[in-house]
């Protein structure tokens, strides 16, 4: 009974906090649907109704309906379309900081009151991964969780490097595995390993037994696998900038093994993924004849959820599993 009473007091305190903020902005006592705030922050971060819907798993009509409710609630458009972007109004700018502060308080207090036991948790962890990270990391993660957190569930969603920090900060994803753009001081990151780029050719390719030099490298034609890592984009630009076009085909990296195995095309890959694809020893991995910076593979979460023991446990666990799976 005492626990139920303390919970009632706690949620009452949260409601009072929000009523004070909303009164300040809108002069009303009516409670605000907290789900609408997720829509507000998604549109704020992404400047797009479509992208906000994709982040939240909502349809375009549902996002538009939520925005209409927000507009009615605050008697303001909040976001207006300009050159294919949804830009915040002055009212939205004034709303952003106090609502953000309130959500921070709620998240912190909720997290501190919830115990976490991996053996019994039925929590769903939403983890952002690139396609390549999903193929490499997800099987390893699930194989281990089967024993240490058998009831936990994973929802892997596409990693958007440009918006990775914002997605974690808003709570739309719990973790990110791979590269995110401009991680700030509010990101908590566990290093997994440093990877490097290699050139993959079929085992009986004419160049397979040779050392790769700038000269013979420049004679190769490539299958280019679409990836979000900035280093891979540097390689793409280098291949494009050369006088002779050398990208013969572009496609999803999962088709690379069959294409490379059956043609004289080469592919540029992170070494760990190339080794994963070369289990049948059909390929030869060659060192590139020039230096590139390493690919830093990390597991990220946001400091806003630092007191969430579930996220902390999953971040550290995922990092250890991936380190051991190399």
What this model shows, in words?
With 326 residues, the protein is an alpha/beta fold. The chain has three domains: 2-112, Winged helix-like DNA-binding domain superfamily/Winged helix DNA-binding domain (Arc Repressor Mutant, subunit A), CATH 1.10.10.10; 124-194 and 296-324, D-Maltodextrin-Binding Protein, domain 2 (3-Layer(aba) Sandwich), CATH 3.40.190.10; 197-293, Periplasmic binding protein-like II (D-Maltodextrin-Binding Protein, domain 2), CATH 3.40.190. It is 47% helix and 20% strand. It is built from twelve helices and twelve strands. The strands form three sheets. A five-stranded mixed beta sheet has the order 4-3-5-12-6. A hairpin with a 2-residue loop joins strand 1 (79-82) and strand 2 (85-88). The longest helix has 25 residues, at 2-26. The protein is globular.
Q: What do the pLDDT scores average to?
A: 82
* Count of DSSP-assigned helices: 12
What would the principal axes of the Cα set say about the shape?
A: globular
Total beta-strand segments: 12
> How far is the first residue's CA from the last residue's CA?
50 Å
Task: Give me the CATH fold name of the largest domain.
Answer: Arc Repressor Mutant, subunit A
What's the CATH H-level superfamily name of the largest domain? Winged helix-like DNA-binding domain superfamily/Winged helix DNA-binding domain
State the CATH architecture of the largest domain: Orthogonal Bundle
Gyration radius, in Å: 24 Å
Strand order of the largest sheet: 4-3-5-12-6
Order of helices and strands: HHHHEEHEHEHEEEHEHEHEHEEH
